[in-house]
Backbone:
């Protein structure tokens, strides 16, 4: 069968990474509509959000290193299939139960595509271009987020079927990606290690420090995402006073656009430095978010979104670059899976905690307590990155093998 070139395969893999974040964020603008249509509390809407990382974590625990054994292509096809099922359930959903099941399938789909897609980008990139691959992977996540909230906001506000059409569009995108992924090279990087079996993903002991720094950095970035994507639309509606879905989506899209722009500009920066600057931006963004929600100020909320996007981008970029530069190719997907596992588990717990707090004590209280906690994760990322960066081992440049 004819296969794609390395360059085309790189961009298809980047599109799969973008799909993962689009799928993750697609329901974000729809949560207020679900709440109104089905009478849901903030606890239920954030539980919908939290089901996704819980399912994703379980899938990572079971299948985190699958692509290291059976190849990136096969695993990506499995992930896209699960994502398709999840999005289809949202597109058809007549009740909240369908949404919960669909969210679980989305989590499984992203678990099977995000780590292999990130690893494939590194392996399909030109020699010596690891930092560029990490930068584009970060930008791809931003493109996915922007499509979810901006296109979703426009369709919800101005098109018919506001709780369904957004997901039909995403279904078409996933189907197109599946067709393109089918023609990726049939490569694998772990031929000598025997048959795959279900087990938790693992990494060499020599990577423990790097893995810790990367996991905390990505966790801090995903903590920002938990607040912005699970409650951002409701913050804009209830605390800022914006009742236009496109305006709300544009604010959240600004968050995503900044992620992509910063990732592109900062692609040459060292991993530890990116984490340090990203952690500082996280602290500043959370302070701005608290002030904007208290003062009911849209300009300050915009400033918070911009600063949060920069923090997310640099933390994610720094964490991904640490793994890309140091993990051996036959452990790359498994090591990335550990990072994503920790990050998504914490994201789910944070989102659920924010929802429970918002239901019991009000949305403002949830912001007042959640923002300092997220700022603390940014500070932790700074400290750990500084401590471990100088001792990080370096892996050889990745090469692509074939099945």
Residues:
């Amino acid at each position: 069968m004819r296969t794609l070139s390395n360059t085309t395969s790189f961009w298809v893999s980047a599109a799969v990474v973008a799909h993962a974040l689009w799928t993750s964020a697609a329901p974000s603008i729809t949560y207020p509509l679900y709440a109104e249509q089905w009478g849901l509390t903030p606890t239920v809407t954030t539980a919908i959000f939290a089901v996704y990382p819980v399912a994703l974590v379980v899938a990572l625990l079971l299948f985190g290193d699958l692509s290291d054994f059976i190849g990136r292509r096969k695993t990506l096809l499995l992930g896209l299939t699960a994502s398709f099922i999840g999005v289809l359930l949202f597109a058809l959903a007549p009740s909240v139960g369908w949404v919960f099941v669909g969210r679980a399938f989305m989590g499984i789909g992203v678990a099977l595509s995000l780590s292999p897609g990130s690893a494939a980008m590194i392996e399909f990139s030109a020699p010596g271009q690891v930092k560029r691959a990490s930068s584009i992977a970060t930008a791809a996540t931003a493109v996915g987020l922007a499509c979810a909230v901006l296109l979703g906001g426009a369709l919800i506000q101005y098109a018919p079927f506001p709780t369904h059409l957004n997901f039909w569009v995403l279904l078409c995108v996933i189907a197109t990606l599946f067709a393109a992924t089918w023609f990726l090279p049939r490569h694998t990087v772990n031929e000598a290690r025997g048959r795959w079996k279900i087990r938790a993903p693992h990494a060499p002991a020599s990577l423990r420090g790097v893995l810790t720094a990367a996991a905390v950095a990505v966790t801090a970035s995903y903590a920002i995402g938990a607040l912005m994507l699970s409650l951002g639309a409701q913050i804009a509606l209830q605390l800022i006073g914006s009742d236009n879905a496109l305006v709300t989506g544009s604010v959240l899209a600004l968050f995503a656009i900044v992620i992509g722009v910063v990732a592109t500009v900062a692609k040459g920066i060292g991993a530890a430095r990116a984490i340090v600057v990203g952690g500082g931006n996280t602290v500043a963004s959370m302070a701005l978010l608290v002030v904007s929600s208290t003062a009911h100020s849209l300009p300050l909320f915009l400033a918070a979104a911009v600063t949060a996007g920069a923090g997310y981008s640099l933390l994610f970029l720094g964490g991904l670059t640490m793994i890309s530069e140091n993990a051996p190719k036959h452990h790359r997907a498994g090591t990335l899976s550990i990072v994503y596992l920790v990050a998504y588990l914490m994201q789910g717990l944070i989102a659920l905690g924010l929802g429970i707090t918002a239901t019991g004590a009000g949305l403002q209280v949830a912001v007042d307590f959640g923002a300092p906690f997220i700022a603390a994760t940014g500070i932790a990322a700074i400290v750990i990155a500084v401590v471990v960066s100088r001792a990080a081992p370096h892996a050889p440049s990745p090469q692509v093998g074939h099945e």
Confidence is low (pLDDT under 50) at residues 393-403.
